[in-house]
């Protein structure tokens, strides 16, 4: 299992050092949640902040756009140092054009589905994307409880990708820690986003290693 610490749970006043801390603790990716206060009822940070903290690690920056019109901002996030850009299938942008734009910048493209969105919503795009992120909480705020009933969606996406011979990475985000990660692994998740489970752990390296063993 790859672990992507969610910077939403870090101390924003020392974000660069928090990224360094997660890097040294053995994190695989860094997960950066971008919220616009419109698509979700919260605001985080934007491309200029990502550009500033990019220098603190060589690990992939997994940028999750919780914004209404992601197509409009792909160049900004590409220029800031994103390696992976995921955006919501429920957004207002044209899905195909947004995927094409991300790919045109040499970046991996992924689609995100909210808890109420069925797995089948992403099926028609599976041959065009690299990743599907299944939200295991309602997007917008950290610290929520894991929704185990999202796991059948993970399995459905995995089964469909396998049926079509597609190499798709499946990521899960929300309420994931030692008590819940086994369910993700069993369902076919490849990458888990972990926030409070790693940032608030007494020993981040031990916490990450404990999650990676699945």
Written account of the structure:
The structure is a single chain. The chain has 214 residues and is an alpha/beta fold. The protein has one domain: Alpha-Beta Barrel (TIM Barrel), CATH 3.20.20.70. It has eight helices and eight strands. Helix 6 (181-187) links the parallel strand 7 and strand 8.
In short:
The chain is of the alpha/beta class and 214 residues long.
- Spatially, the strands of the biggest sheet line up as 1-8-7-6-5-4-3-2
Structural class: alpha/beta
Number of domains: 1
Rg over alpha carbons = 16 Å
Q: Which spans of ≥5 residues are poorly predicted at pLDDT below 50?
A: none
The string of secondary-structure elements, in order, is: EHEHEHEHEEHEHEHH
Quick tags:
214 residues; alpha/beta; TIM Barrel; 31% helix
Helices and strands, with pairings:
Blueprint (H helix, E strand, L loop, with lengths): L1 E4 L9 H10 L5 E6 L11 H7 L7 E6 L7 H7 L3 E5 L6 H10 L3 E6 L17 E5 L15 H13 L5 E5 L7 H7 L3 E4 L1 H4 L4 H9 L2
Parallel strand pairs: 1-8, 2-3, 3-4, 4-5, 5-6, 6-7, 7-8
């Amino acid at each position: 299992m790859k672990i992507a610490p969610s910077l939403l749970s870090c101390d924003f006043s020392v974000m660069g050092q928090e990224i360094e801390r997660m890097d040294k603790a053995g994190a695989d990716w860094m997960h950066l949640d971008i919220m616009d206060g419109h698509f979700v009822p919260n605001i985080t940070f934007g491309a200029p902040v990502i550009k500033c903290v990019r220098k603190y690690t060589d690990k992939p920056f997994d940028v999750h756009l919780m914004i209404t019109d992601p197509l409009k901002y792909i160049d900004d996030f590409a220029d800031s140092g994103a390696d992976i850009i995921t955006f919501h299938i429920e957004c207002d942008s044209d899905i195909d054009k947004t995927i094409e734009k991300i790919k045109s910048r040499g970046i991996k493209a992924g689609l995100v589905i909210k808890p109420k969105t069925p797995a089948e919503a992403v099926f028609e795009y599976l041959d065009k994307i690299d990743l599907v992120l299944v939200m295991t909480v309602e997007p917008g705020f950290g610290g929520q409880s894991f929704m185990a009933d999202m796991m059948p969606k993970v399995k459905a996406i995995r089964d469909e990708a396998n049926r079509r011979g597609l190499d798709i990475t499946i990521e899960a985000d929300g309420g994931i820690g030692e008590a819940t990660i086994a369910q993700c692994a069993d369902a076919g998740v490849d990458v888990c986003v972990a926030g409070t489970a790693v940032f608030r752990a007494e020993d981040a390296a031990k916490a990450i290693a404990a999650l990676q063993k699945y």
